[in-house]
Amino acid sequence: MDAPKEHPRRRDPWVRWSACGVGGFALVSLFLGFVLLPSVQPDFTARGLWDGICRAAGVPSNWTSAATSKPARNGTTLVVLGPEMASARGRDSIGRGATIAVQLCSMCHGAQGMSEANAPNLSGQYPEVVIKQLHDFQRGARTSAIMQSLAHGLSDRDIDDLAAYYGSLPKARARPVLAGEQGAPALVKVGDPLRNIVPCVSCHGGIDHKLGTPRLEGMPKVYLLEQLHAFKRGERRNDSFAQMRNMVRVMSPEEIEVVAEFYAGRPAGSPAEQ
């Protein structure tokens, strides 16, 4: 009786080598995807195989709220605005804030909150604005090498005290922007409904003040232009619900120039009209 014939594929060395090659390629791919490539990322931390798999797949390793406790670098703000942030603080808070301001802030923002270095004027700024921006700098939602470094060392009380101090200083004197005011750009007074641009005054004062939006009167033009263009390019993203980005994205460079010129040209440095 003849012996059973061996299947020809079993004798083919190319089958074995092909299987080995596929296995080796899979191992190399796993090494590259789960070890080598993640390790060169600046925020890489080796926390186990599961985290490596989730990172390579682009999904969160933890679906609970703890997974989003820290915002992405230069991500959107996580500050929740509340009316208590705008409430008046006591004299102790103002005095302590003045001390911190002299030590950390006066070189750029001026001794009395009026900048001569194209940094934003903080004199008379709404307290919740100062609080929000400093927390955004702390958490990386807004980027600036200088401001992030300074804000990193501030406690919550330090931030509240700074906000109380700057809020207590005289505001830049400026009349409300009225509907018929001569010289006010149309985008400031009435916006452009066809492009979904609301009037600047609907949030930034003049007609109404929206919690968390800054006073713009008397701000340095260079600063206003930098921030508006940063919003337009998407480089600054700490505006809640992308409100500023949505407004500025459809504005032309000429319109941005006109709006910045208008707010920078408002009377500044005078005591506020009470």
Describe what you observe in this structure.
This protein is an all-alpha fold and 274 residues long. It has 13 helices and no strands. The longest helix is centred in the first third of the chain and has 27 residues, at 13-39.
Based on the model shown, name its key terms.
single chain, 274 residues, mainly alpha, 13 helices, 48% helix, elongated, disordered C terminus
Structural class: mainly alpha
Tell me the distance between the termini.
116 Å
Strand segment count: 0
Shape: elongated
- One letter per element, helices H and strands E, the order comes to HHHHHHHHHHHHH
Largest sheet: none
Uncertain runs with pLDDT below 50, 5 residues or more? Answer: 63-69, 267-274
Helix content: 40-55%
Beta-strand portion reads under 5%
Mean pLDDT across the residues is 81
Q: Helical element count? A: 13
Rg result: 28 Å
